[in-house]
Input
Amino acid sequence: MTQTPMTEPEQLARLTIACEALGFSMSCDPLTGALLRTLAASKPAGRILELGTGAGMSAAWIIAGMSADAALVSVENSEELVDTARSVLGDDPRVTFLHLDAATYLAEPDGSLFDLVFADTWAGKFDQLPEALALLAEGGVFVVDDLNPQLNWPDGHAPKVVDFKRSMHGNPGLFVTELDWSTGIMIATRAD
Ligand SMILES: C[S@@+](CC[C@H](N)C(=O)[O-])C[C@H]1O[C@@H](n2cnc3c(N)ncnc32)[C@H](O)[C@@H]1O
Output
């Protein structure tokens, strides 16, 4: 099986340098990125939400898959990281980077629904999961990575992952698939 993506977004080199300069090591790996690009490309004119922008690595992969009329909203509570993502990706009119607590974003929905949601921070995954799932449009796909045990998990993280998986699998309104791909992926769609 070929795992390494054959192509990658051109902005990755700049983002990698920026992440090293910031000491930021939580960006998605190329396999998750490639999956996100594929899913983004499967949603022409897709409305896409990312919770936890980081420095913009996953956003770069998502953008690479997006059609010209698709749109990405990406939420991050670190000003330094949002600024980094904006500096590399912010010229793309399809993308809106919000410097905002994802918990606030989820607590105050504006009625927008999304065709693809990458839940990559606590809010929307370990907290406020129902609120995040409620943002899925019909046919929308919910994606989470980092579900396989990682050496850098802090104390108390593993039970959160177990609880999250249990909640997802126990939700009769979802079709859920776990993939032993990258850092451990879960994808889900609404079952209605
Ligand atoms: C796993 S990293 C995101 C990595 C990014 N999605 C990528 O793959 O390139 C999680 C991010 O969530 C951010 N974060 C933590 N708590 C948050 C919150 N309450 N609201 C928004 N962002 C938050 C962190 O600053 C961090 O950048």
